[in-house]
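User: I'm preparing a small set of examples for a lab meeting where we compare how different chains pack in three dimensions. I only have the primary sequence for this one, and I'd like the structure in token form so I can line it up with the others. Please keep the answer compact; I'll paste it straight into my notes.
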Amino acid sequence: MMDRIRMDPAFRPGYAFVADYRRIATLPDAAYVQAQLTYARKHLKELGRIRWAIVVPVFVPAAYAMARAIEALAEVSDITVRGFTEVDAAVTWAALDDARSYG
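Assistant: Understood. Below is the structure token output for the 103-residue chain.
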């Protein structure tokens, strides 16, 4: 999927990503998450500063725990990840110039 995003004519470095996992039956496993982070690190020059908002269902505590784990994994890179339970909050955060400073 990320290759398709990078190849889209509308893509510009520095785009923020909002991943909405509220309706999926099975949460991504650790291998998937690590693959996404590895891809982003490998293509950081092309992608620009990455902001990745992850929206999870409020009634599934494990989903929010997964989002927080991704945040921790991403802290050692130029990728800023934040977990949310509301899409509007995720979109607002992703659109900020300095998403690292948002609540």
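A couple of notes for your slides: The beta strands are 16-20, 50-55, 79-84. The chain has five helices and three strands.

User: Perfect, thanks.
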